[in-house]
Amino acid sequence: MHTTEIIVRGYHLDVFGHVNNGRYLEFLEEARWALFARIKSVEEFVKDGFAFNVVNINIDYRQPVVLSDVIVVESVLGQMGKHSATLVQTVKNKMTGAVVAEARVTFVMLDLEKQKAALLEGKLKEELLEVMQPQKTIEGKLQ
Q1: How far apart are CA 140 and CA 74, in angstroms?
Q2: d(Cα 143, Cα 135) in Å, to the nearest integer?
Q3: Pick from 120, 36, 31, 25: which is nearest to 79 by CA?
Q4: What is the tens place of the pLDDT at every residue in 96-141?
Q5: Which residues form the catalytic set?
Q6: Max Cα distance, the chain (Å)
Q7: CB count, 10 Å around CB of 124?
Q8: What separation, in Å, do the N-terminal and C-terminal C-alpha atoms of the chain show?
Q9: Mean pLDDT score of the chain
Q10: Phi and psi at residue 131, in whole multiples of 5°?
């Protein structure tokens, strides 16, 4: 699992004084950038002919977050198919430990030459599995 800390700033808030739902997309994206940087730089992915593309995001909001709260975004691989994978991202309030949001982010690695989803196999699959440390069931299989 990869974790990213973010301090809630005034510009993250809406008129009600809590983080606007749209800002969670930015928090989740910040955590994904940090996660993928552990594999290699964006430039290296592009040089290898790949780009990370989100194709679906589902977010469940649990509790509000307010000014100066510190949140922790935990990111872990949920499942991986032939062409797409799902990243599970959990946002927690660092002080209380409460889960404030949960997201499932489905992505593909775009083959830049073919302009379609690449097969998740070989070195690319190994790199993704290594850095995302997938959640496993009791039987040891990917969820």
Answers
A1: 21
A2: 6
A3: 120
A4: 999 999 999 999 999 999 999 999 999 888 888 877 766 554 444 5
A5: 14
A6: 48
A7: 18
A8: 14
A9: 90
A10: -85, -30
